[in-house]
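Notes for week 9. Today we move from apo structures to complexes. The key idea is that a small molecule is not decoration. When we ask for a structure prediction with glutathione present, the ligand SMILES becomes part of the input, just like the chain. The input block below holds both the sequence and the ligand string. Read it once before you look at the output, and try to guess where the molecule might sit.
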Amino acid sequence: MGLLVDGQWHDKWYDTEKHGGRFVRSESQFRNTVAKGTEFEPESGRYHLYVSYACPWAHRALIFRKLKGLENHIDVSVVHPLMLENGWEFSEAPLNEPLYDADFLYQIYLKADPEYTGRVTVPVLWDKKTQTIVNNESAEIIRIFNSVFNELTGNTLDFFPASKQKQIEEINEWVYNDINNGVYRSGFATTQKAYEEAYQSLFAALDKVEGILSQSRYLAGDELTEADWRLFTTLVRFDAVYFGHFKTNKKRIVDYPNMWNYLLELYQHQGVEETVVMDHIKTHYYASHTTINPTQVVPKGPEIDFHQTHNRGQNGGEKS
Ligand SMILES: N[C@@H](CCC(=O)N[C@@H](CS)C(=O)NCC(=O)O)C(=O)O
């Protein structure tokens, strides 16, 4: 775990002291988009996506690449699940870096900006033509994937429809703060107070989700949207990792009937299962966060069956 300062790598854990033991996520810095008539034209084969299978933010991008039929247009590199003193690393194939034969993800950041100061995070959308990072913010990468390559792929599925954008943005706001980032705020807290604040707002938000899903098929009504996929990547990690490792242990997702069935439905959505790589997920969290789990022992359980039949859309506690 570390960061770049003026282009130099420093092995340093998150500084929570400044914020009373609270984990505060820093803003992503590369915020360009792909668009016709700009320096980043939508072109097949031009862009490369760096991800970790472990990371919920990168997972969003992988899911959108799949749902939007971009696999033949945007290739992917997957980092090694362990993130230790050099940050994200590449390894032997298939976890190698094909463009520059880089060993570490920070080298890719340095290609984009030799003086870069900041965290070296996944996902990264890389432009092979101008050899720079287009964007390293998953919330924006999924919007790019949602629409920008439609002419190339012919895939017009829209997970951010104009009629629902305001509602989706509102849902994203509290789901991000209290759930997606909430699990990290709980797990990375270094004071009891900071942990309890995060824990309480997390479970209040999960109760809210359960309430919504008892009335409605998806978060924003009967249409599957970006808001659902953003929540999914946290829910699918919850019982296996966050519940134990991040101490978010009031309830598991399997204890919420509507949310659990919803999670099964999303997991079983065409193409999604192959984006969920549980051994990378467990290894990454348990063995990389040595301040939380110094032995780096990865628990064997729990056994989770995401293939169970779900009841969504069958009037089973929710309107179809
Ligand atoms: N806001 C970013 C967050 C990405 C992020 O924090 N990724 C984590 C992995 S889950 C990471 O790469 N962390 C490395 C670090 O913070 O040094 C996004 O959504 O893309």
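The chain has two domains: 3-153, 162-270.
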